[in-house]
């Protein structure tokens, strides 16, 4: 059906996480890294992998689905059917929900988004900070598991929640030291995504180009 719209040109369908990964590897924070995990942390948590210098979408385009790795075995039920998934702890709505459950209250504007929680954390609100720390812990456990399995050396994080900046990245770097413990993953770094809101579009182009040749060589 998509091919009909493009007048018969070849079409590749890849998920947001994979598209963002292609974009970050081509022109963003994962550029020059042959083994990388890229993540979108927003209303959900998605991701994609660069392995051996190439995008690794997997047979169905779903490789890198880090949002639904369980990092809390007896944790809250996730809409996917499992428990304690990274997304169930680290997505924007879950960061906001946990802050509200802990007693955080929004300002006069009634904004209960993760961005509002991040602003409160930046201003020193302990409950807001704790919610971001818990999200960072879940992300760190998922990233460390990925690194231990396939030896990535960088995790790039984009999406609305990453806009919290150091409110997220400072506890994330701390937590990574707790979970990425084997010698070959200790140099693992995390970096904010660079491609912004165009990442999906640029990534779709990059993924399509990768199909025929190595984009990183362009
Ligand atoms: Zn899940």
Can you tell me about this structure?
The protein has 218 residues and is an alpha/beta fold. The protein has a single domain (2-217), classed as Nucleotidyltransferase, domain 5 (2-Layer Sandwich), CATH 3.30.420. It has eight helices and five strands; from the N terminus they run H-H-E-E-E-H-H-H-H-E-H-E-H. The chain has helices at 2-5, 16-27, 86-90, 92-101, 114-122, 126-150, 166-179, 199-212, and strands at 36-41, 45-51, 54-55, 154-158, 189-192. It has a five-stranded mixed beta sheet with strand order 3-2-1-4-5, sandwiched between helices. Strand 4, helix 7 (166-179) and strand 5 form a beta-alpha-beta unit. Helix 4 (92-101) packs across helix 6 (126-150). The chain starts with a helix and ends in a 6-residue tail after the last helix. Zinc ion is lined by residues 68, 78, 80, 82, 85, 87.
Keywords for this entry:
disordered C terminus, alpha/beta, 8 helices, Nucleotidyltransferase, domain 5, binds zinc ion, single chain, 11% strand
Q: Low-confidence parts lasting 5 or more residues at pLDDT below 50?
A: 214-218
CATH-defined fold name: Nucleotidyltransferase, domain 5
In CATH terms, what is the architecture? Answer: 2-Layer Sandwich
Please provide the ordered H/E string of secondary-structure elements.
HHEEEHHHHEHEH
Bound molecules: zinc ion
Binned, the helix content reads 40-55%
Domain count: the total is: 1
Share in β-strands: 5-15%
- Give a quick account of the main beta sheet: strands, pairing sense, barrel closure: 5 strands, mixed
Shape: globular
CATH superfamily: ATPase, nucleotide binding domain
CATH class: Alpha Beta
Evaluate the radius of gyration: 18 Å
* Total DSSP helices: 8
Count the strands?
5
- Strand order across the biggest sheet? 3-2-1-4-5
Kindly report how far apart the N and C termini lie: 30 Å
Structural class: alpha/beta
- Average pLDDT taken over every residue: 90
């Amino acid at each position: 059906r998509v091919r009909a719209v493009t007048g018969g040109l070849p079409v590749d369908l890849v998920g947001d996480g994979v598209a963002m990964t292609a974009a970050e590897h081509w022109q963003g924070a994962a550029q020059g890294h042959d083994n990388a995990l890229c993540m979108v942390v927003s209303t959900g948590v998605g991701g994609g992998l660069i392995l051996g210098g190439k995008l690794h979408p997997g047979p169905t385009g779903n490789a890198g689905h880090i949002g639904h790795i369980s990092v809390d075995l007896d944790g809250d039920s996730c809409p996917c059917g499992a428990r304690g998934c990274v997304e169930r702890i680290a997505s924007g709505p879950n960061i906001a929900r946990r802050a509200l459950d802990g007693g955080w209250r929004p300002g006069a504007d009634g904004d209960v988004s993760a961005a509002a929680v991040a602003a409160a954390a930046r201003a020193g609100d302990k409950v807001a900070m704790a919610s971001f720390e818990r999200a960072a812990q879940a992300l760190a456990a998922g990233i460390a598991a990925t690194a231990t399995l396939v030896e990535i050396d960088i995790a790039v994080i984009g999406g609305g929640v990453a806009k919290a900046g150091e409110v997220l990245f400072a506890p994330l770097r701390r937590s990574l030291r707790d979970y990425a413990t084997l010698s070959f993953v200790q140099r693992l770094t995390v970096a904010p995504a660079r491609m912004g809101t165009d990442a999906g579009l640029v990534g779709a182009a990059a993924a399509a180009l990768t199909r025929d040749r190595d984009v990183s060589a362009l």
